[in-house]
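Note to self: the last two entries modelled the partners one at a time, which told us nothing about the interface. This time every component goes in together.
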Amino acid sequence: MSYKLTVGLEVHAELKTKTKMFCNSANDPFNSEPNVNICPVCMAHPGTLPVINKQAVRHVLRVGTALGSNLADFTEFDRKNYFYPDIPKGYQISQYKYPLVSNGVLAGIAIERVHLEEDTASSSHEGSEGSLVDYNRAGVPLMELVTKPVIHSAEDAGRFARELQLLLRTLGVSDANMEKGEMRVEANISISKTDKLGTKVEVKNLNSFRSVERAIAYEVERMTRILDGGEGEIVQETRGWDEVAQKTFSQRKKESAHDYRYFPDPDLPKLKISEIPEFSNEALKATMPELPWEKRERLVREYGVKPENAEAFTVDSKLGGLFEEAVLATDSDLSVVTLLENYITSDLVGLMKGSDSFGGITGATLAELVLMIKAGDLSSRGAKDTLAIMYAEGGESRAIAEKNNFIQKNDIEALKKIVEEAISANPTVVADYKSGKVALIQFFVGQGMKASKGSGNPAILKQLFEEGLK
Ligand code: MN
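The predicted structure of the combined assembly is written out below.
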């Protein structure tokens, strides 16, 4: 019998606000000049007092609203005491007993809580000058989301983290780039053969979705080896992720909550959320944009978009915007939706080569392009070529197609002449066709396409040859 994996995630995200969590210093942790966005409050000078950033509180309440969570009525901030040079006060202001948000669900995963705290400074231990600390990040508003331990595969953990990133971006509360550390995922991992959870380890420094998935898979292997191989017991500890070696490594034995001596911060007021009108449930709901899962569902329901393309248009909202603009420009002609989906997700994305530029293409010109295909004016080959020219130079589909002779010949008289010539030029093939080798019709269509220099409409040619060969 194999082990059952159980994972709980803790995700920190830097919130987008003008100023820091408890002072007026700019929230700009990536300023190239170190230690410029600081002030006596975030540098913990004696006699200074913190002030709560309302925008940061609103961000977390909006996340809670999107997740269908319970929003706290009473909430307070606590001190989490520990020493490290990146935490000048000797404690981090966080939330312990009364988080702003509890419960809720995302991507099918139950959420325990979402609370608000402050980020630490960033330290660097590279170079010859010893360790350096940059306090630009100290005091930046930080949201911490904790899931319940209900994730049972590495893939589900990765899926959850991706969906959370998309939600934070959709709400505009965080840029949530993992490689920049704006969103940081920690995974609490255990395995067990019974319903009782096994000893967990916490893996940190996961700075991509891939490393989240790989670290979990690595831990499952490592723990299984320990338990099955009689190599002693799993130790409860914090482990790091080595991106180069693709392995986790032991960092330190895990502290317990009581080691931090949490207690309510006496310098900050307790909040009664219901006393703040703009934080009422209705007021917060009114600030909700269309959420990712609502958009996926709507694209499928309203336009019949394929689920994988609904996903692409949701994850890349710019691409989704172009798609919807194009649909509207066709007067919502749903018969061309599949064409639009295909030309955007395959041809246009190919032309974009990883950039976010649509070049000279707009929703209106895309609409015209697919309507021309539908009318039989453009073959798929001609459409691809038109699209490439439009991407590079801009302009309107019909004008480009006309200028470059991409318009399909639907002129029946001209095509009939081509058909007659092809039939009289190939008497043996005609005889074979008439003796039953009907697949030879493709040969004739090919001859017709050749004679029309690719501009003949193959469907019409086929029909004319079938008639001519009777
Ligand atoms: Mn935290």
